[in-house]
Design brief:
The chain has 348 residues and is an all-alpha fold. 72% of the residues lie in helices and 1% in strands. It has a two-stranded antiparallel ribbon. α3 crosses α8. The longest helix is centred in the N-terminal third of the chain and has 35 residues. The radius of gyration is 21 Å and the shape is globular. The relative contact order is 0.17.
Length: 348
Amino acid sequence: MAEPNIPTLNVLPAPRRARAAGMQGKRWVFVAVMFVVLGAVPLAASLAGESFYVSLVSRMMIYALAALGLNLVVGYGGLVSFGHAMYLGIGAYAVGILSYHGVGNGYVHVAAALAAGALVATLVGLVCLRVSGVAFIMITLAFAQMLYFLAVSLKTYGGDDGYALPARSDFGFIDIGNATVLYYLVFAVLMLALFAVSRVVDSRFGMALRGCKSNERRMRALGFPAQRFKLIAYVASALVCVLAGVLLANLTSFVSPSYMQWSVSGELLIMVVFGGVGTLLGPVVGAVAWLVLEELLSSAAIGLPWGGDEFLREHWLGLLGIVVVLVAINLKDGLYGSLAGRKEREGT
């Protein structure tokens, strides 16, 4: 049966097309500002003599990349996955296991990680997408925990203690042994992922995916293969997280089962909601804001009286929870979602 035509942004009525164009313009202005700011971080860190910030912002961008992938299924497909940390772990362990056996080629690491991630995501997706709602959340969580305990049982690769990489991946002339080079590699991957996701969500496929989120039964009645669209989106989002895992292993020079714990999946979800679920840049803003708050509160040294700094450092998780509650109550569309407005979240 032939699939019906889906209206894209190019065939929307003129007023809606103008609003969409305006929102896309603002979005790309934000991207341009972000591009300049992130691009200048290594220079600023060098001038300040604080190389630590290069690693810190690299970590933020890696988690932003993972949150961006998760948002593809949560924000545009309406599939709340509580197991995407599993794909972060697959990417990291692909690097760790190959390095342990003497394979240091970075391109082989990436290819193996993507192949393993695609295989696992397809199999998990075929099972999970048979259900929806709370059942989908629980099954994705169950698969992630199974993989977590599998990693713990791999004593050859460190078990629950993890495994320190002998060296970072070898990408030939791209020497990521240098922290600044690795930073710009992470930066480039994040920018490419942003561009790719923006093209996907504005494409015919993206419109159909959003239609499945709004009313899957109607999309099926119209002849759309809703399950196939959701499976493709699920695998694509998993592969973005796999790439983030490859970069995380190289940044820390370490792989650990903790990368795929359920709490990491929860953090990724919070980042997406914190920034603005269903918006292109919301996950990036959410990841950066979340990790900045985590860093500020866990290492507070602002000279508060009566041991205030020590209190902040000891109870920073509780304070972070209060911030999340305040944002959830007052900014229902998240930090970026509230700035961009509901129209971008709805895509028109």
